[in-house]
Amino acid sequence: MIPETFTNLHRLHNTLTRTLNRSGGTFKWKGHWFANMDMLITTDPLDIHHVLSKNFSNYPKGQKYRKLFDIFGDGIINLDGHLWEIHRKTIMSLFRQPNFQSVFEAVVWNKVESGLLPVLESISKTGMEIDLQEIFQRFTFDTICKVLLDYDPQSLSLNFPYIPCEKAWVDITDGMLYRHLIPPIFWKVQRLLRMGNEKKLSDAYNAVYHFVDKCLARIQHESINMESEHVHESFGLVTSLVTEFKSQSGNFGYPPKNFVRDTIVTLLGAGRDTTSTTLSWFFYLVAKNPIVEDKIREEIQTFLEMKVDDQKNWNSKEPEILPSGHHVSQNTRIILYYYGMGRMEKIWGKDCTEFKPERWISEKGGIKHEPSSKFVAFSGGPRTCLGKDMSFTQLKIVASTIIYHYHIELVEGHPVIPSASMVLMMKHGLKVRLTKISI
């Protein structure tokens, strides 16, 4: 399977999806015989429910996962067991602070007003092409930095400044996928010799760590000269992390070394890449379906016009058998393949590849909910994404603001394909032209 995989690396997701459709939604990928790299890739909702919920304790991420995603250190994405539970409770408690949602919305709206709209206005006047994916990546990076670190790097500005930490995430998500496809000994040698993919990853890690450490040092320095209540007001999330960890952990003791940095790095990656990628694919589909764009704009004008114009009002150790009949052992790596899952006729019907927003709307006009084991964008079971509500808030504000003010037209001939990456970014960006809507 190795030659076919590398031959089709530029269209990896489509190749995997075709294979999964032919094999009923689940198949075993045979890796190098000497490297213990066999993987079971599944899109079966019953399998996914089994792994994420029903038999959750049998499927830890483990040390191999932690080595693949070493940038996140002791961040929640790398943990299992009791320490994972403590981290999750800690972060959940922070996100549930009484004023968190209103603060987050204020941050997003401020970036819309001071960054997004001025940039779009300037570019639309010139008629130039624009890479919306880059715009969204800069937008989400600025907002998550402000929320977590009380610092706006202003990467989304008219001069499009180069900020190493913001750009580093592309190399990180691409490089981590590469680690999945070659024997660990190969990439570990690359890392030791600082060459190839591992050199890019190392440079990217350093850029992220330098940025976060610098921000944390600033917070520590400024907090020394402030009264305790003002420290909490100004640097709520960062200063609450250790306190909240001790509260949730009881007798567990002090947080692991680099706890704050690893947590911030994890949340930075989650806050930048996932939402910006979702926005990019959303606007690609909207641009290819202008009738849908018109309908959304009509809804905004009917229900949200005041709110869009006025941000203040827009408020296992033993082998077992999966439900699909496949045997898995302790050393089997399970890949829950969400991209392919969304394109399985077996799950969604023969129209699964069509853009049909109405498939999510009930006959009464409400949102049609699907079980998390069927629609796994935010994972499921005990590992359900803590930032789900934050994501929807940001998505709705940005999408409605842009559609309300602009018509989006794709640049003809520009290829829009997914990159071979851990996050479904667009390989060549999303090139569009904007036309201001006369309101």
From TrEMBL:
Keywords: Heme, Iron, Metal-binding, Monooxygenase, Oxidoreductase. GO terms for biological process: lipid metabolic process. Its cofactor is heme. GO terms for molecular function: heme binding; iron ion binding; monooxygenase activity; oxidoreductase activity, acting on paired donors, with incorporation or reduction of molecular oxygen. It holds the Pfam family p450. PANTHER family: CYTOCHROME P450. This is Cytochrome P450. It comes from Lactuca virosa. The lineage of its organism: Eukaryota, Viridiplantae, Streptophyta, Embryophyta, Tracheophyta.
